């Protein structure tokens, strides 16, 4: 029975599908209705929420577990993990301190405490130097022309410092064989793409002619081999085969460097026909926890990560197609009345704030019931069908396309067809068992046409291989 399954291996790392977590949450919710003063139920449901990225709910449950029993040490662990996932390192440190105080001989707890303490100190240091002088760009300290490519490097090189289709094909093959692009070429791409992105508005507006179509993809999350599969199924990007990738290119999957350099390369090759929007994972806090920063440091350097961070800050936040379809990573807003003009005016070259339209675009989720609720993630909000309806009406739009949530079928149509989710990382984190999907939109009718696909094999490097040790799945 399912109960037995929870007892015997809920904490094991072996493949849990999305359904199992959902069932676990349902089971503990029922158990809590019968016995609302059981700290273990709250704590165990908190873990299921952590695994499904509902960090807001996970935090609430861990807090509840401690309200029920303030001596329940696992509750402090869970609350610390939730806060870490939310980037609230100081709050996490306090709970790790408690655990270490109560269990001075617990080596695992000590390690977590030290790791968290390191991050808190590092953040304090970064804040101190940031206020000293206005931050200089990494670009100014690079001497790319002067970087030499060693004779034994036989991989792809830009041609006259330009990305070409030949270069892109060679680079994709090179990456497929798990080889590293020369750092000079990586820097060339980054510096050039920063320049291209910084000239775009925060809200990109495009028009498809009657005969044209665009492909919209959702989260790719470092799943490079699945990205190649999209190109195989749907054709390589080109002037006549435009794409829009809707954020969350990096983190989680351990081939994030390959994904992002491929996407940036195509942006340089087809600046007007290949579109990228920022996701909540194109941010420093997420990259520090979920693998991208670690991966760039492992494959290149900390300095290159700094440059990635600068480039991410210039990614546009939303895209409007034929004045009728609005695409963004997360969703709509914590307050009514936001207009497209407000989006155009967002000063986006920054880490996202904790609230407001920029935060909502990257973080919010739809919900089935009317109105708004507290976010299950602990950031931004959830918005109902009435919110979507009012927003579309005020801005004379037909529907929104967003990503940000794994869906079993790769996509989901909600809010009477006015809010569409698309997610393009099949078998997310090697464990969700979901399909991926992409959408075709044609200029003639703007009717979404869904295409599903399943995961392809990838080399034996697990997701989150470069993530902060505190976030690696086995340790939650
Ligand atoms: C809660 O999870 C723990 C593992 O952390 C497990 O051993 C225990 O059986 C679970 N309790 C319940 C009541 O499901
Ligand atoms: C290349 O680097 C060397 C050593 O740092 C420096 O002396 C030289 O001026 C640089 N050349 C160019 C073209 O910038
Ligand atoms: Mn996301």
UniProtKB/TrEMBL annotation:
Q: Where in the cell is it found?
A: Cell membrane; Cytoplasm; Nucleus
Q: Which reaction does it catalyse?
A: O-phospho-L-threonyl-[protein] + H2O = L-threonyl-[protein] + phosphate; O-phospho-L-seryl-[protein] + H2O = L-seryl-[protein] + phosphate
Active site feature? 281 (proton donor/acceptor)
EC number(s) given by UniProt? 3.1.3.16
Show the GO MF annotations. Answer: metal ion binding; protein serine/threonine phosphatase activity
Please indicate which superkingdom the organism of origin belongs to: Eukaryota
What are the ranges of the TPR repeats?
A: 5-38, 73-106
What keywords are assigned to this protein? Acetylation, Cell membrane, Cytoplasm, Hydrolase, Magnesium, Manganese, Membrane, Metal-binding, Nucleus, Protein phosphatase, Repeat, TPR repeat
**Main subcellular location of this protein, as a coarse class:** membrane
Q: What class of enzyme is it?
A: hydrolase
Q: Which cofactor does it need?
A: Mn(2+); Mg(2+)
SUPFAM superfamilies linked to this entry: Metallo-dependent phosphatases, TPR-like
All copies of the Serine/threonine specific protein phosphatases domain together span 277-282
What GO cellular component is one of the record's annotations?
plasma membrane
Q: Is Nucleus one of the keywords? A: yes
Does Cell membrane appear among the keywords? yes
A Pfam family matched in the record: PPP5
In the record, the note on similarity to other proteins reads: Belongs to the PPP phosphatase family. PP-5 (PP-T) subfamily.
Name assigned to this protein: Serine/threonine-protein phosphatase
Which organism encodes this protein?
A: Lates calcarifer
Q: Which gene encodes it?
A: PPP5C
């Amino acid at each position: 029975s399912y109960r037995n399954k929870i007892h015997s291996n809920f904490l094991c790392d072996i493949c849990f599908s999305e359904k199992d977590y959902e069932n676990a949450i349902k089971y503990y919710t029922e158990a809590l209705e019968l016995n609302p003063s059981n700290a273990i139920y709250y704590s165990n449901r908190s873990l299921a929420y952590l695994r499904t990225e509902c960090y807001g709910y996970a935090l609430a449950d861990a807090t509840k577990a401690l309200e029920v029993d303030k001596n329940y040490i696992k509750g402090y662990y869970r609350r610390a993990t939730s806060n870490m996932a939310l980037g609230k390192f100081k709050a996490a440190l306090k709970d790790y301190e408690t655990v270490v105080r109560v269990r001075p001989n617990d080596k695992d707890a000590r390690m977590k405490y030290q790791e968290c303490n390191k991050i808190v100190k590092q953040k304090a240091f970064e804040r101190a130097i940031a206020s000293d002088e206005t931050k200089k760009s990494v670009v100014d300290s690079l001497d790319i022309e002067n970087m030499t490519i060693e004779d034994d490097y036989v991989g792809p090189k830009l041609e006259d410092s330009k990305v070409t289709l030949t270069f892109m094909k060679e680079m994709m093959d090179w990456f497929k064989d798990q080889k590293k692009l020369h750092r000079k070429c990586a820097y060339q791409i980054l510096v050039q793409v920063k320049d291209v992105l910084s000239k775009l508005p925060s809200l990109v507006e495009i028009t498809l002619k009657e005969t044209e179509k665009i492909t919209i993809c959702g989260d790719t999350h470092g799943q490079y081999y699945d990205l190649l599969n999209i190109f195989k199924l749907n054709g390589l990007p080109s002037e006549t085969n435009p794409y829009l990738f809707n954020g969350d290119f990096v983190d989680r999957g351990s081939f994030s460097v390959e994904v992002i350099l491929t996407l940036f390369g195509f942006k340089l090759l087809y600046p007007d026909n290949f579109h990228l929007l920022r996701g909540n994972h194109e941010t420093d806090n997420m990259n520090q926890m979920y693998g991208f920063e670690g991966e760039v440091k492992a494959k290149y350097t900390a300095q290159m990560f700094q440059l990635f961070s600068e480039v991410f800050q210039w990614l546009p936040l939303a895209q409007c197609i034929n004045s009728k379809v609005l695409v963004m990573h997360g969703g709509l807003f914590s307050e009514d009345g936001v207009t497209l003009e407000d989006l155009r005016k967002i000063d986006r070259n920054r880490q996202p704030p904790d609230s407001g339209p920029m935060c909502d675009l990257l973080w919010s989720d739809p919900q089935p019931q009317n109105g708004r609720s507290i976010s299950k993630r602990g950031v931004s909000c959830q918005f109902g069908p009435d919110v979507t309806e009012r927003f579309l009406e005020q801005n004379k739009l037909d529907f929104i396309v967003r990503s940000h949530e794994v869906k079993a079928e790769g996509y989901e149509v909600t809010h009477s067809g006015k809010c569409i989710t698309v997610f393009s990382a099949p078998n997310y984190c090697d464990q969700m068992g979901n399909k991926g999907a992409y959408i075709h939109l044609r200029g003639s009718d703007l009717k979404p046409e869904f295409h599903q696909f399943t995961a392809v094999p990838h080399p034996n490097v697990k997701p989150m291989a470069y993530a902060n040790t505190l976030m690696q799945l086995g340790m939650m």
